[in-house]
Every structure is written in structure tokens, then in C-alpha cells.
Write a structure and sequence with these properties.
Elements (H helix, E strand, L loop, with lengths): L7 E2 L23 E2 L2 E14 L2 E15 L5 E2 L6 H29 L4 E2 L5 H38 L5 H12 L4
Antiparallel strand pairs: 1-4, 2-5, 3-4, 4-6
Helix pairs in contact: 1-2, 1-3
Protein name: DUF922 domain-containing protein
Length: about 180
């Protein structure tokens, strides 16, 4: 179960349940269900003094795939196993895109040093944390855009899970993530 402010992180051991879709469904929308999936990230920022300058570097960037129950909904009259499997596919696709892009994101920052701003050490540390977060966030947004495009392709190809042949092709692909 998730509490009010929690998200569900993707795991090979967990599959979405209809009870995870906690938002009230808008009866005017075309779609029978709606999943809100985004990427979260953590990182470590460190700094070193080089002459008079303080430089920061970023390491241990981790990205997580997060399903947002309080923003996700389903039209109860249409909640069935086939549709749930399709929604799980959105979650699995997000994990697939994460895996395909994490190392290039990490490589963008690995071993690089960036200048800090601020008048004293305390300010520089604060700005290093803030600036590094913004830098990573921009890269994560690019991955989110890739995901949005892939989800659109997935929905169109599978006709939102109604094309069982195409859906099962995707499902087979997603099973590889759980090995």
C-alpha cells in the first residue's frame, strides 16, 4: 500500500493493481485509464578547491521510475486485466527507457568538474547542490521526452491494448526486464 504522498518505484517484483489508481477518473476523457509515470533522481555532489576556485563534481546519479497513484485513474466500468496489463506496459516501458539512457546520462557528468558561484564556502556548497540538481534535471527531462514519445508509439501500435497481437509482442519484450 502507498501512503498519501508516496509513489511506487518500478520493481521487477511488483505489478500494478487497479487499487494503485487512486485519482478520480474524469468521465469526459477518451481514455479508460491514465497512468502518471515520471523519473526521480538522486546524486552526490562534492567539491574541491583548485587554487582560489571551488569546483564541484557529480557522482552516483541514480534514476528511478515512479508511478504516481494519486494522479493515476481508471474508468471503473472498463477496468479489466487486459487494460491493466497495458498500463503495466507504460510502467515497464519507462524502466526500459531508463535502462537505455542511464549510462549516457552518467557519462555526461562522470569525471567532469564544474565552477561554483557564491561568496563563501557555505554559499558555494549550496549553489553546487542547486546547480547540479538543475543540470541533472535538464537531462532527466530529455529522457522523459523520449519516454513520452515511446508511450505514444506503444499506445498507437497496440491500440491502447486492444490489438492483442501487438500487445503480446510488447509484453514479451517487457518480460525481459523482470529476469
Amino acid at each position: 500500500m502507498v501512503s498519501e504522498n508516496e509513489i511506487l518505484s518500478w520493481s521487477k517484483d511488483y505489478s500494478l493493481q487497479w487499487s494503485d489508481f487512486k485519482a478520480e477518473h474524469n468521465p469526459a476523457t477518451y481514455e479508460d485509464s491514465h497512468s502518471v509515470i515520471k523519473y526521480g533522481f538522486t546524486w552526490v555532489v562534492d567539491s574541491e578547491k583548485v587554487g582560489d576556485d571551488v569546483l564541484f563534481f557529480i557522482k552516483n546519479i541514480q534514476i528511478s521510475v515512479e508511478f504516481c497513484p494519486l494522479l493515476s485513474s481508471v474508468r471503473v466500468s472498463n477496468a479489466n486485466d487486459q487494460l491493466l496489463k497495458h498500463e503495466q506496459g507504460h510502467f515497464d516501458l519507462a524502466e526500459l527507457v531508463r535502462r537505455q539512457n542511464i549510462s549516457s546520462l552518467q557519462m555526461k557528468f562522470e569525471g567532469k568538474k564544474f565552477p561554483t558561484r557564491g561568496k563563501n564556502e557555505e554559499q558555494r556548497k549550496q549553489f553546487a547542490k542547486e546547480d547540479s540538481g538543475k543540470m541533472i534535471s535538464l537531462e532527466v527531462e530529455k529522457i522523459q521526452k523520449i519516454l513520452d514519445k515511446r508511450i505514444q508509439e506503444y499506445d498507437e501500435t497496440t491500440d491502447f491494448g486492444n490489438n492483442l497481437e501487438k500487445q503480446s509482442e510488447y509484453d514479451l519484450h517487457f518480460q525481459q526486464l523482470k529476469l
